[in-house]
Amino acid sequence: MANPFDLHGRKAVVTGANTGIGQAIAIALAEAGADIVAVGRTKPDETGAAVRAAGRQFHAIDADLGDASRAGAIVQEALKHAGALDILVNNAGIIRRADALEFTEADWDAVMNVNLKSVFFLAQAAAREMLRAGRGGKIINIASMLSFQGGIRVASYTASKSGVAGLTRLLANEWASKGINVNAIAPGYVATNNTTALRNDETRSREILARIPAGRWAKAEEIGGAAVFLASRAADYVHGALIPVDGGWLAR
Q1: Which of 13, 84, 178, 246 is 20 to 30 A from 217 (CA-CA)?
Q2: So what CATH class is 11-245?
Q3: What is the pLDDT of residue 66?
Q4: Distance between the two ends of the chain, CA-based, in angstroms?
Q5: pLDDT tier at 1 (50, 70, 90 boundaries)?
Q6: How far apart are the C-alpha atoms of 5 and 84, rounded to whole Å?
Q7: Which of 129, 228, 142, 141 is CA-nearest to residue 179?
Q8: Is residue 189 among the annotated active site residues?
Q9: Taking Cα atoms as reference points, which of 57, 95, 74, 85 lies closest to residue 193?
Q10: Can you tell me the distance from the alpha carbon of 167 to that of 162, in angstroms, rounded to the nearest whole number?
Q11: Residue 123 CB contacts under 8 Å (≥ 6 apart), including other chains
């Protein structure tokens, strides 16, 4: 029987693939057989080396994902280099921390532009190409525990990740019948650059660890398996799902 998780011949675009979760997802997809186009502002040299070491093709696109007007151009550049687009992983995200009483409009807009606005317009541009090519596709958004919960001191991040959850369901409703699967992964507390401040806060880190049944922060590579599943034929009948990879956090 053919391996339903095999991604050979597939072309994937991964945003924010230079470090952390995005890097881990890009490498996992490559190890499953996919060629990778990485999108972001920072050169993903380490990611590229790992993808090529897995025997896959790699191309990097330099783009500020705070500017959603570039979504169409990003997809066209990806097509120019990869030749097709089968998988989009909307991973890029930023966070700003401040008490809600002090939160600024600039910090609100910066986070919403990257975490939600660009997610929608990249998905739109990718779906248009997937439909034009007639081969369907997989769109994977990266949600958060704060897609389910409120959090503290991260107003725009919580709003954006709650929006990602709703947007994932809406796009699944519209595109499932067109052969495009739209789903999301909700990582738990992962040791990445975005969580450095939390891990350095002894009180908050202790509180977080006390609630995680697995008893530890996740490693970025532990998110990769869920991405491979959602990108593969094994998930052909999965639409609009938000899959927590959280060490049991939501079950507590």
Answers
A1: 13
A2: alpha beta
A3: 97
A4: 38
A5: low
A6: 19
A7: 129
A8: no
A9: 95
A10: 9
A11: 88, 90, 139, 141, 167, 171, 182
Position 13 confidence tier, pLDDT thresholds 50, 70, 90:
very high
The token pair that represents 10 in the structure block: 């597939």
Closest residue by Cα to residue 197 from 65, 98, 108: 98
Using DSSP's 3-state secondary structure scheme, residue 65 falls into coil
pLDDT at 194: 72
Delimit the domains of the chain by residue range: 11-245
**The two structure tokens encoding residue 124:** 């739109």
Q: How far apart are CA 223 and CA 246, in angstroms?
A: 9
In this prediction the pTM is 0.96
Quick: pLDDT tens for 151-181: 999 999 999 999 999 999 999 999 999 999 9
SS3 annotation, 192-216: CHHHHHHHHCHHHHHHHHHHCCCCC
Q: In Å, what is the CA distance from 80 to each residue of 33, 37, 67, 98, 106?
A: 20, 11, 21, 41, 35
Please tell me the predicted confidence (pLDDT) of residue 204. Answer: 86
What pLDDT is attached to residue 160?
98
Q: Are 163 and 116 in contact (CB under 8 A)?
A: yes
Report residue 242: phi and psi, to 5°.
Answer: -115, 110
Q: How long is the chain? A: 252
The active-site residue out of 58, 121, 157, 229 is: 157
